[in-house]
């Protein structure tokens, strides 16, 4: 059967189920869990259908499948599949480095340029390797400036607190053409009984930022140890603690977003260059690479397949947004949200079709109040993905129930297997992906709640997935 015809038959099955959907009984265990969660059935969308569209069987379950819903982080499924389809699993990002001037006796008599091109995983280890390559050119001191070229992406200087008032949470980090270490600082607290203090280390060292070396130890249970520290992290010039650290906590780490995200890359590069013994006579500043200057070298990111695993397994928002902007940059030569949205709409129409409508795209991560998709649209995309050459990369990127990622603590009672992307916002929650039934059939499953109690509906989603695995 031709592929296009099989998809059409599947859509006919979806449509046929729609006429009776309001009369359909939900599985008792799902219905009961929704009642306990105080989430009305009118606030959820549910769809269970064969992963293989050629089966052309009616959905096992279809409830409000044509209603647009806020998918939260489930939207990362769409972004990552589009990227795998358009760019290929082996795609990598390059970060070129330029030397503008001669090098004499270990001194660069000019500027060093680092050009960001959207690498989502320029973490500290890879930044160290980049700077080590600079030293490998014989450069120990830079007479001029270190210039960071971030022009590949439009500047998104949105208030990091605007989404939910939690601007210091790492998940609110904004995308950046030169995204260094997710713009976060990891603080490690190590109790020292001899001095009755907890030593604090910071990764990375940020140039020009004053940090506190220790805090007093306190007796008692570990409890809410972060609150006990009474941290003052909103001042870009210093990181301070007015409280104490419970000795019973042992060693703990705390990741926080830096208060001035726009200056983070320069501070991180400057701090690491100094730690490596490097010197700079000028400034660390933003700017553009001069026209015609050739790179001295470039470093490459991990392949897209690995990046997609990080995005979906751990629901990394800023990496998803980096990928979303990369699609605009690669397909439209513009690293803007508008170019990326246009790219996504065109890809959807050409690859998925318009029979079920089209999602509303915003930033591709699901950290949005505006993104929308129906269960029918998402299920159709998963069916197309199931038969695509990049199916294995997409499937392996999804959290496995009871095994890893955001599903590591959500094992199925039935003992079955499921690979599902989760999503949670203040008033949206759900799961979507692939579930294996006892019969050997594989299903696409979509379950989303939009309601003030949406997070409480997780047991209902778990019950649905267990119900799916128990087919015969």
Q: What do you see in this structure?
A:
- The chain has helices at 3-18, 28-37, 76-87, 124-136, 225-228, 261-275, 304-314, 317-332, 337-352, 375-386, 391-397, 458-469; strands spanning 44-50, 61-63, 94-100, 103-104, 107-108, 111-115, 141-142, 146-149, 184-192, 197-203, 210-211, 214-218, 231-232, 238-241, 245-246, 252-257, 279-280, 284-286, 297-300, 418-425, 428-436, 442-450.
- It is of the alpha/beta class and 472 residues long.
- It has two domains: 3-90 and 304-469, Beta-lactamase, CATH 3.40.710; 93-301, D-tyrosyl-trna(Tyr) Deacylase, Chain: A (3-Layer(bba) Sandwich).
- The strands form five sheets. The protein has a five-stranded antiparallel β-sheet, sandwiched between helices.
- A hairpin with a 5-residue loop joins β21 and β22 (442-450).
- α2 (28-37) runs antiparallel to α12 (458-469) and α3 runs antiparallel to α7 (304-314).
CATH level-four homologous superfamily name of the largest domain: DD-peptidase/beta-lactamase superfamily
Q: Characterize the largest beta sheet: strand count, sense, and whether it forms a barrel.
A: 5 strands, antiparallel
* Rg calculated over all Cα atoms: 25 Å
Q: Count the E strands.
A: 22
What is the approximate shape? globular
Note poorly predicted spans.
1-23
Supply the CATH class of the largest domain. Answer: Alpha Beta
CATH architecture descriptor text of the largest domain: 3-Layer(aba) Sandwich
Q: Provide the domain count.
A: 2
Q: The CATH topology of the largest domain is what? A: Beta-lactamase
N-to-C span: 26 Å
- Could you report the average pLDDT, rounded to the nearest whole number? 92
In terms of structural class, how would the helical and strand content be classed? alpha/beta
């Amino acid at each position: 059967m031709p592929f296009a015809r099989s998809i059409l038959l599947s859509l006919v099955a979806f449509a046929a189920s729609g006429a009776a959907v309001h009369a359909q009984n939900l599985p008792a265990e799902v219905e009961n869990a929704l009642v306990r969660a105080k989430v009305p059935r009118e606030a959820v969308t549910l769809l269970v259908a064969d992963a293989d569209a050629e089966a052309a069987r009616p959905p096992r379950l279809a409830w409000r499948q044509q209603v647009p819903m806020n998918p939260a982080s489930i939207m990362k499924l769409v972004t990552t599949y589009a990227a795998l389809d358009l760019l290929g699993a082996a795609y990598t990002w390059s970060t070129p480095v330029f030397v503008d001037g001669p090098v004499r006796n270990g001194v660069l008599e000019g500027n060093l340029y680092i050009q960001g091109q959207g690498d989502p995983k320029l973490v500290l280890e890879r930044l160290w390797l980049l700077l080590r390559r600079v030293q490998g050119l014989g450069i120990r001191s830079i007479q001029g400036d270190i210039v960071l070229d971030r022009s590949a992406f439009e500047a998104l200087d949105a208030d990091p607190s605007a989404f939910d008032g939690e601007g210091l949470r790492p998940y609110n980090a904004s995308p950046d053409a030169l995204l260094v270490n997710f713009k976060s600082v990891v603080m490690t607290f190590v109790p020292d009984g001899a001095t009755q203090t907890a030593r604090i280390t910071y990764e990375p060292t940020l140039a020009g930022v004053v940090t506190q070396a220790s805090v007093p130890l306190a007796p008692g249970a570990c409890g809410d140890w972060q609150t006990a520290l009474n941290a003052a992290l909103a001042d870009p010039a210093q990181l301070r603690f007015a409280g104490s650290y419970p000795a019973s906590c042992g060693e703990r780490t705390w990741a926080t977003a830096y208060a001035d995200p726009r200056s983070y890359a320069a501070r991180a590069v400057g701090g690491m260059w100094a730690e490596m013994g490097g010197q700079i006579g000028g400034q660390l500043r933003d700017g553009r690479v001069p026209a015609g200057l050739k790179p001295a070298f470039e470093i490459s990111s991990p392949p897209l397949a690995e990046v997609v695993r990080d995005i979906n397994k751990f629901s990394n928002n800023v990496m998803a947004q980096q990928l979303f902007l990369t699609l605009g940059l690669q397909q439209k030569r513009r690293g803007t949200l508008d170019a990326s949205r246009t790219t996504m709409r065109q890809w959807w129409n050409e690859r998925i079709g318009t029979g079920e409508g089209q999602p509303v795209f915003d930033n591709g991560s699901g950290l949005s109040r505006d993104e929308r998709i129906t269960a029918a649209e998402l299920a159709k995309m998963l069916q197309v993905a199931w038969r695509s050459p990049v199916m294995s990369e997409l499937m392996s990127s999804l959290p496995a129930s009871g095994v890893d990622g955001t599903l590591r603590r959500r094992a199925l009672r039935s003992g079955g297997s499921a690979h599902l992307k989760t999503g949670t916002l203040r008033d949206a929650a759900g799961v979507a992906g692939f579930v294996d039934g006892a019969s050997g059939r594989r299903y696409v499953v979509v379950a989303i709640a939009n309601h003030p109690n949406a997070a409480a509906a997780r047991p209902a989603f778990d019950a649905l997935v267990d119900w799916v695995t128990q087919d015969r």
